[in-house]
Amino acid sequence: MQGPKYLFENEDHWRTAMGAWFPGERVVFRGKDLFKELKDLPWMGLLLYGITGRIPNGKQIRLFDGIWTLCTSYPDPRLWNNRVAALAGTTRSTAALALSAGNAVSEASIYGRRPDIRAIDFLLRVKCQLEAGAEIEEIVIKELKKYKIIPGYGRPITRKDERIEPLLSLAEEIDFSHGPYVKLAFMIEETLLQGRRRLHMNIAALAAALAADQGLSCREYYHYSILSFSAGMLPCYVEAVRKPEGVFFPLSCDRIQYKGKPRRVW
Length: 266
Hints:
Helix content is 52%, strand content 4%. The model has no long low-confidence stretch (mean pLDDT 93).
């Protein structure tokens, strides 16, 4: 505890460099007038500026918009976070709660946000180690021994990640496909394909590499990614709301093989 001194210093006010609303007058967004200086920014540009404090250029906005469009929002209700949104719909909850719950469970260990953070963190660490004189094979072997996985490589169900080709095509179109981190991501894949496990790259590595090449830190990349699944969740919610209540993936009782304590009489 630091004592009440800091509480008294912040009572009734909050020092901020992020922004302020002046009712009936203007809005300041990270030191700039929202209605004058930022009025031409698309929403993705405003999001990135809010996260990083840097105004992205047109190609960067197109890249980060494209990552969301091509890689994150499949409207498949079987997917774990979409299923949560659909369950909210089948119980007649609100769309806001459905999206909130779906995005909350997107911070999963195997899919979603945590692998994204680990992927960009791994690429940043590898680049630093290479610049310090380490060999890529040595780094990869050490990582596998320590963590048993390489973030951004390997995929359940299928080895091929269908998102890599369209995202790489977009990156090539806007001349972002040859950055140092993208090259590093493919170098790591080549190293892994020569090993016993033969792990292919998945979209987490490529998206993280493209973000790192544009100067995003681990934390900034995480903040950018938080809402990215939302466009796939909403269609699942909307469809579930239109159908009768409670019919989303029902499971009859006789399909449940219970192996716990027998029924007890109270």
